[in-house]
Amino acid sequence: MIALALFLAGLLSLSASAAISLSHQDAMRIGRKIWQNECAGSVAGLTSWNAGENFASLGIGHFIWYPAGAQGPFQESFPDFVRYVSKRGAKLPDLLLGRKSGACPWNSRAEFRAAESSPAMKNLRIFLVDTIDLQADFLVERLRNALPKMLAAAPEEEREKIEQSFNRLANRAHGCYALIDYVNFKG
């Protein structure tokens, strides 16, 4: 994060604090580009569980979903995404409805892979395809929440310049895409 903060500090600043704002078209373009880069643009790529990991990676942002009792070095993000889209009126698939625990229903990669052709997994993929724009919006929201963390990690005398540079990039679709990619996939 400090490397990104220093990179941003080196950019020219044009404006003071501004909210990240993207049109629906820009969000869709960003979502499709991330989908292409991270999932090869395939529907099957929206649901994965990589070898050696103890979690499922879902959606264009590879939102992490841990099974009950599992922990790891990464922040779980899929339950937050589900809450985000639910508040925006997205129709959740049965797999996500009424879950008392926010835990992933598969306990292992083997269980996940065995369910790849199941109706529940197919419905999950349809849900993920139908929410590409909301996934992009969620990634923007995560980006917005990352700025205070970046500023806290930066030297105090650099914070204003970093914030201005961040906002300059974040308010252009290409810049927002680059920041989302860096923050979401690089930590």
Please describe what this structure looks like:
- Strands 1-2-3 form a three-stranded antiparallel beta sheet.
- Helices cover 53% and strands 4% of the residues.
- It is mainly alpha-helical and 187 residues long.
- It is globular and about 50 Å long.
- It has one domain (2-186).
- The termini are close together.
Topology readout:
Elements: H1 2-9, H2 24-39, E1 47-48, E2 56-58, E3 63-65, H3 78-87, H4 109-114, H5 119-130, H6 132-153, H7 159-170, H8 173-186
Antiparallel strand pairs: 1-2, 2-3
Helix pairs in contact: 1-7, 2-6, 2-8, 6-8, 7-8
Total number of strands? 3
Q: In what range is the share of β-strand residues?
A: under 5%
Structural class call reads mainly alpha
Mean pLDDT: 84
The number of helical segments is 8
Order of helices and strands: HHEEEHHHHHH
Assign an overall shape: globular
Radius of gyration: 18 Å
Percent of residues in helices comes to 40-55%
Residue windows where pLDDT falls under 50 for at least 5 positions = 1-18
Largest sheet, in brief, is: 3 strands, antiparallel
How many domains? The number is 1
> What's the arrangement of strands in the largest beta sheet?
1-2-3
Distance between the termini: 7 Å
Which terms summarize this structure?
mainly alpha, 187 residues, three-stranded antiparallel β-sheet, disordered N terminus
At a glance:
With 187 residues, the chain is mainly alpha-helical.
